[in-house]
């Protein structure tokens, strides 16, 4: 994957991760804030409701004292008037002479007065007590009992849906009511306030609750946040990619172009990498410039040393070959009178061949320019140095250097020396991208066990240096071609050489 795409994905991924983390944190904070918000509402609601019920009970006790005085003063009309003004005051019950005489003053809503009288008796009250009792609806019941005198005063305060609705509107509580068991509402945010009966037992719970939800303002803010997130991600990704591509990738591209230039033209370039930055890439460019300068300097020194060695090599080869030629001439003249002259001649020929091989090796390692050669002219120039019959079919131009003469010289010399060849043929064919040369030596051939080894460095069957065919292989590789050999029962050893054709 290209670096610019990696950068784009990385920047976008980091931004998305950043916003996801922010959303996660925000969501966690909102959740905690929501929990705290509803708990505060429940606390406030419970406190308000407790205060209201307490005030309601105190007010009911006050009414109880007034109603007792009014009843004993035969002012029941005032009692009825107050009960009509306070619709939730359902009834005032007076029990005399241990229940033999019961008076009920009501506004018409009390369902069964005797049940309340029985409740007070069952509670075993002696004195003033207030509590909650449940019949058709919930009531606050205040009783003033004097067992010694056999009297009881009972005041009923109805707590119904209308009463709860008033509290709900006043204190902005979503749900309020009476339940007999905790968790009956099955709401996440709910509070249950136990209420006691006249005998102190829990008769149920007044509950308040809120729906588990986010406020519309919060939801609207979250939606806007998502839109802003998408917009900012797109903008920041584009800007980040542009800046990265302009700064980092542009400078990296200059480094790449510089290295491509070195690859195509070598270190023969006077251009240096320049950069206006002050960061790691600038340091990298400076390091590359220093490395290139050092490599170029060492390369120039090595080129000079190699050139000097080539000069020395050529001079030594020239002088040695001249001296050996002279010595061989003397050995030829004196061979009739010298029993060792034939051996001297053979050793001189071998030494001359070795010196010539050094020239072939130099051609392999020398970094020379390729040029066009006509194969037929090259083969004819080489073959005339040997006393052997030859036949050349076809002709073509190939790309090589002066080492191409060594290719055919080593092949011909190897065939004569090791294959005992007296005749050779050269067939030149155009095969598209390559020129194929088939060389047949009509000699003794090569054994199947050795045919794959003959081009290896140092391989020899006759004690020679074993470098001739290795030089052929290396020169062919240098020219971008290849060589291999095979046996033929009729044609002896057959060599296949593939040369590259000139372009254009």
UniProtKB/TrEMBL annotation:
Catalytic activity: ATP + protein L-histidine = ADP + protein N-phospho-L-histidine
Compartment(s) where it occurs, according to its Swiss-Prot or TrEMBL record: Cell membrane
Histidine kinase domain residues: 315-503
Metal-binding recorded as keyword: no
A Pfam short name: HATPase_c
Transmembrane segments: 7-31, 226-244
Alphabetical UniProt keywords: ATP-binding, Cell membrane, Coiled coil, Kinase, Membrane, Nucleotide-binding, Phosphoprotein, Transferase, Transmembrane, Transmembrane helix, Two-component regulatory system
GO MF annotations in UniProt: kinase activity
Catalytic EC class: transferase
Membrane topology field: Multi-pass membrane protein
Protein name: histidine kinase
Organism: Geoglobus acetivorans
């Amino acid at each position: 994957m290209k670096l610019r795409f990696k950068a784009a994905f990385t920047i976008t991924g980091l931004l998305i991760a950043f916003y996801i983390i922010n959303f996660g944190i925000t969501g966690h904070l909102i959740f905690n804030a929501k929990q705290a918000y509803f708990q505060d509402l429940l606390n406030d609601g419970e406190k308000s409701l407790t205060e209201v019920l307490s005030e309601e009970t105190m007010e009911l006790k006050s009414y109880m004292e007034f109603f007792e005085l009014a009843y004993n003063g035969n002012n029941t009309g005032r009692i009825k008037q107050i009960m009509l003004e306070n619709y939730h005051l359902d009834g005032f019950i007076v029990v005399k002479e241990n229940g033999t005489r019961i008076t009920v003053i009501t506004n018409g809503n009390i369902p069964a007065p005797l049940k309340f009288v029985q409740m007070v008796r069952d509670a075993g009250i002696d004195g003033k007590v207030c509590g909650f009792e449940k019949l058709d609806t919930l009531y606050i019941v205040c009783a003033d009992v004097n067992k010694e005198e056999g009297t009881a005063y009972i005041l009923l305060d109805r707590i119904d849906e209308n009463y709860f609705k008033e509290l709900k509107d006043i204190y902005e509580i979503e749900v309020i009511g009476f339940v007999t068991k905790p968790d009956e509402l099955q709401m996440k945010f709910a509070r249950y306030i136990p209420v006691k009966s006249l005998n102190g037992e829990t008769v149920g719970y007044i509950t308040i609750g809120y729906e588990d939800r986010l406020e519309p303002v919060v939801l609207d803010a979250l939606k806007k946040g998502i839109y802003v997130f998408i917009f900012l991600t797109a903008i920041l990704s584009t800007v980040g990619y542009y800046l990265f591509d302009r700064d980092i990738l542009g400078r990296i591209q200059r480094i790449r172009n510089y290295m491509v230039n070195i690859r195509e033209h070598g270190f023969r370039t006077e251009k240096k990498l320049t950069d206006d930055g002050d960061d790691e890439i600038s340091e990298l460019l400076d390091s590359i410039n220093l490395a290139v300068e050092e490599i170029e300097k060492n390369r120039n020194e090595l080129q000079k040393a190699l050139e000097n060695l080539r000069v020395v090599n050529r001079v030594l080869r020239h002088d040695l070959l001249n001296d050996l030629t002279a010595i061989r001439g003397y050995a030829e003249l004196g061979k009739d009178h010298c029993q060792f002259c034939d051996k001297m001649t053979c050793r001189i020929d071998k030494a001359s061949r070795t010196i010539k091989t050094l020239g072939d090796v130099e051609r392999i390692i020398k970094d020379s320019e390729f040029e066009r050669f006509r194969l037929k002219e090259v083969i004819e120039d080489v073959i005339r140095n040997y006393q052997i019959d030859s036949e050349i079919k076809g002709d073509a131009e190939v790309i090589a250097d002066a080492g191409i003469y060594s290719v055919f010289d080593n092949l011909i010399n190897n065939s004569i020396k090791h294959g005992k060849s007296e005749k050779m043929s050269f067939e030149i064919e155009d095969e598209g991208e390559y020129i194929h040369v088939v060389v047949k030596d009509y000699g003794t051939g090569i054994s199947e066990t050795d045919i794959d080894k003959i081009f290896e460095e140092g391989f020899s069957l006759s004690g020679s240096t074993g470098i001739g065919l290795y030089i052929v292989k290396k020169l062919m590789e240098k020219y971008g071609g290849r060589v291999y050999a095979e046996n033929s029962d009729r044609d002896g050893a057959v060599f296949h050489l593939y040369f590259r054709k000139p372009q254009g």
